[in-house]
Amino acid sequence: MLTAIVFVKADVARIPEVAEGIAALEGVSEVYSVTGQIDLIALIRVRHHDEVAAVVADRLNKVPGVQSTETHIAFRAYSRHDLESAFSLGLD
Q1: Are the C-beta atoms of residues 68 and 37 closer than 8 Å to each other?
Q2: pLDDT tens, 21-64?
Q3: Cβ-based neighbours of 48, under 8 Å, separated by 6 or more
């Protein structure tokens, strides 16, 4: 599974509608409204690299209210659960 994190700048007056439109796209697992330089963060989960382009360039960028995007491809995931497992002494 390939994960891409997409930073989205959106029309501020339409953020809820833009977020809902993005969340409805196939391949989008989650959308977060955030503070800072960007308005939304979308998590894309697909099987192949070319599917990222299909989701982002062909669909997400065309959601009304999306002004710009910046896509980051994740190559390794860390979570608290993973880190605890890695350092566990097996004394559970």
Answers
A1: no
A2: 999 999 999 999 999 999 999 999 999 999 999 999 999 999 99
A3: 2
State the DSSP code for 39.
S
Neighbours of 67 (CB within 10 A): 13
Q: How far apart are CA 44 and CA 51, in angstroms?
A: 9
| Number of other residues whose CB lies within 10 A of the CB of residue 3 | 16
Domains and CATH numbers, the chain: 2-86 (3.30.70.920)
CA 21, 56, 15, 5 torsion: positive or negative? positive
> CA nearest 56: which of 36, 42, 39?
42
Residues paired with residue 46 on neighbouring β-strands, in sequence order? 2
